[in-house]
Every structure is written in structure tokens, then in C-alpha cells.
Amino acid sequence: MSTIIFHSQPMSVYLWTASLVAAEKHVPWTVRVIEPGSDEHRRFNPFAKSPVLEHGAILLYETLAIAHYIDRAFDGPELQPESALDQAEMLRWVSLVNAYMFPTMTNGLAKERLLVPSQGGVPDEALIERSAGEFRHQLGVIDRALASNPFLAGEEISIADCFLFPHLHLASLTPEGADALAHARMASAWLARMRARPSYAATDQLRQKAA
């Protein structure tokens, strides 16, 4: 039986992040599909973004808040570092993903190369070219961060890794992303480690989780 419900579009990258956190904590979850921008959606989240977490009488939106809540409200492996510096590093990476990597990896590369053609559209090649250049720069930042630790905020997986993974995974499925990752040894090794975790297998087919 599900412990928490995510109200969301099934293929949302931020639903994937929230689901990874739940899977890492071994918390049962399901997805309830919600119509984007509907009145119901805005009752749950006034900004009509996904996901929204439901846990009993609790409704919570914004993915970082959701991830923090799941980590603190349930037993299981800790997904936030103890030291102030390591926690600051985790939060910095969440901010970097939201501000820079989501626009580049998901909107600039994955959406244009994978989603737009699947819907009969024409990719924006200028946007892809700009995004590919920025992606290579971002991979350099990621590589340097992973030079001394297996995960973004230290020796253990954290919320930060759950934020980055969906974006980097989707970018890797594009020709530009795959080419850039071939020259980013640390980022590629991290991606392989994340894909080897049970949480990846538990959350990869989000369409099958939708109810």
C-alpha cells in the first residue's frame, strides 16, 4: 500500500527526483496523474507545477521541500549530510541543477532532441548548439566536484544526486550529450553508479507507476 502520493504529470523530471528520494528511503509511493494547469492542480499548487506530495492530510509542493520532508519524516538511509559545510554543498548543487542544468540538459537538449521530434515538431538547432556548449562547461564543473568524492556532497548519495540524475540521464540520450559525456570521465562514472542503484530501476518507468 502506498505511503505517499505524488500528484504530477508522469514524465516530469522533478517527479523523478522526488520518486528517487522516496525509493532511496524505501517509502512506498504512487503517482496520481493531474491535468497541468487545471483548477485542481492550482488548488494543490498555486503555481501549477509538479509534483505535489500528499501524505495523509499533508499537501506539499516544491521538490526540494518534498525531498527534505521525505528524508526527515521517514526512517531509512539519511539523504542529507550532517556537517554544515556538506549540507551547504548539497544545497548548492540543488540550486545549480535548478538554475542552470535543468534549462540546459532537459529543456535545451533532451526536450529539443527527444520530445519535440516525437510530437512531430522541428528541433531548435540554434538552442541545441548553445545548450551543447553550456553542457560541456557544466560537465567540467561536475567532473571537478566528483574528483574527490563518489557523490556530489560527499561519500554517500544525497538529495543533490537525486536532483541532478534525471537531467544528466536524459541529456546523455541525445547525440550531443553522449558525445560530451565521452570526454567527462567522472560524470560518466557517476551516471553509471546512479543507474546501478535499485532506485533507478524502481523509478525509470514512471508511466507504469501512474494511476
Count of distinct strands: 4
Beta-strand percentage range: 5-15%
Which strand order does the major sheet show? 2-1-3-4
Structural class call reads alpha+beta
Q: Low-confidence parts lasting 5 or more residues at pLDDT below 50?
A: 206-211
Largest sheet: 4 strands, mixed
C-alpha termini separation: 13 Å
Helix content: 55-70%
Name the shape in a single word.
globular
Describe the model:
- By secondary structure, the protein is α+β, with helices and mostly antiparallel strands.
- 61% of the residues lie in helices and 9% in strands.
- It has ten helices and four strands; from the N terminus they run βαβαββαααααααα.
- α1 packs parallel to α3 and α1 packs across α6.
- The radius of gyration is 17 Å and the shape is globular.
- 42% of the residues are buried.
List keywords for this structure.
alpha+beta, 9% strand, disordered C terminus, 4 strands, four-stranded mixed β-sheet, 211 residues
Sum this structure up briefly.
About 60% of the residues lie in helices and about 10% in strands.
Q: What order do the helices and strands come in, and which of them pair?
A:
Layout: E1 4-8, H1 13-25, E2 29-33, H2 39-44, E3 52-55, E4 58-61, H3 63-73, H4 84-118, H5 125-145, H6 159-172, H7 175-181, H8 185-195, H9 198-203, H10 206-209
Parallel strand pairs: 1-2
Antiparallel strand pairs: 1-3, 3-4
Helix pairs in contact: 1-3, 1-6, 4-5, 4-6, 5-7
